[in-house]
Amino acid sequence: MSDTILVTGGAGFLGSHLCDRLIEHGRDVLCVDNLFTGSKDNIQHLLGCGRFEFMRHDVTFPLYVEVKQIYNLACPASPVHYQHDPVQTTKTSVHGAINMLGLAKRLRARILQASTSEVYGDPSVHPQTEDYWGHVNPIGIRSCYDEGKRCAETLFFDYYRQHRLQIKVLRIFNTYGPRMHPNDGRVVSNFIVQALHGEEITVFGDGQQSRSFCYVDDLVQAMILMMDCGAEITGPINVGNPVEFTMLELAETVLLKVGGRSRIRFMPLPSDDPRQRQPDITKARSLLGWAPTVSLEDGLEPTIAYFRKLLAA
Ligand SMILES: NC(=O)c1ccc[n+]([C@@H]2O[C@H](COP(=O)([O-])OP(=O)(O)OC[C@H]3O[C@@H](n4cnc5c(N)ncnc54)[C@H](O)[C@@H]3O)[C@@H](O)[C@H]2O)c1
């Protein structure tokens, strides 16, 4: 069997960093992406590498390739993008999972799902542990993403129970770093781009809602550890940085690092926006031996540098 590793959504933010790391580790990588939110710019530097191959393909359609492992990341991840075509978002999560699980079943390949903290919805327990079932609105504007990802998890565990597939489910919390989309409305990129443009920094609500932010290198490390650990470890496992910041603290830190004269402007809170989000990473620590190592201050440096270069181009 081919030793190739398939990364769906590999031209996106997380996917492209994962491809980088796998190539660094000497692996052969097949990157599959429909370029909805991803970009060839993110993988341009890999295109000349003999061990890297790019295939433009939509995961809502079946895929017939020979691979050893599958990282399933294909799915728009920011509200701006996943709400643009919500039906397609659900299809990408659900049909995409069915197609990738079907492929894994045929090949007896190990498969990892990039799930999300959004499966917890607007949580009523804090911090969130993996046994918390969530508090999700099934008919709201975020539901295409949240429920799509929940259904994908269901499919993964049914394939595991019914077909003895080797599955790995990671629940990823807010992650940031270079190659985030500049206009996707995610808070870190938003604040940085606004500060670099010298515009007002828009903070929703009173800015006291909190989030935790994980640097992309830490996250990619967790993905590879999860994929390569013992088959008995299926997850779901939370991965993210448990250090919590309020939106106001983040805005102030970004302002300090970028410099300039931007001011903070408060805006009404969007519908279904969770007040608090913080991972309990006890399982990741004990089962994977993983914990984030990059502080927000340190991770913001390369991220700001990336956006500075992008906006100057
Ligand atoms: N970045 C985060 O903070 C975060 C948090 C939780 C979960 N995740 C999950 O991680 C994965 C990657 O997220 P990201 O932040 O890199 O987002 P991203 O939008 O940069 O990457 C997603 C990639 O999937 C591709 N894609 C979308 N629909 C597709 C389809 N139908 N067929 C093939 N490719 C398709 C996009 O073009 C893009 O390259 C997603 O599944 C997301 O839900 C990310």
Short description:
With 313 residues, the protein is of the alpha/beta class. It is 38% helix and 17% strand. It is built from 9 helices and 13 strands.
Structure description:
- This protein has helices at about 15-25, 80, 85-105, 145-165, 185-195, 215-230, 245-260, 280-290, 295-310, and strands at about 5-10, 30-35, 50-55, 70, 110-115, 165-170, 175, 200-205, 210, 215, 235-240, 245, 265.
- With about 325 residues, the protein is of the alpha/beta class.
- Helix 1 (about 15-25) links the parallel strand 1 and strand 2.
- The longest helix has 22 residues, at about 85-105.
- Bound molecules: nicotinamide-adenine-dinucleotide.
- Nicotinamide-adenine-dinucleotide binds near residues 58, 75 and 76.
Question: How many runs of DSSP E, i.e. beta strands?
Answer: 13
Amount of helix: 25-40%
What ions, cofactors and ligands are bound? nicotinamide-adenine-dinucleotide
As a percent range, the share of strand residues is 15-25%
**Main sheet: strands, sense, barrel:** 7 strands, parallel
Q: Briefly note the structural class of the backbone.
A: alpha/beta
Mean pLDDT: 95
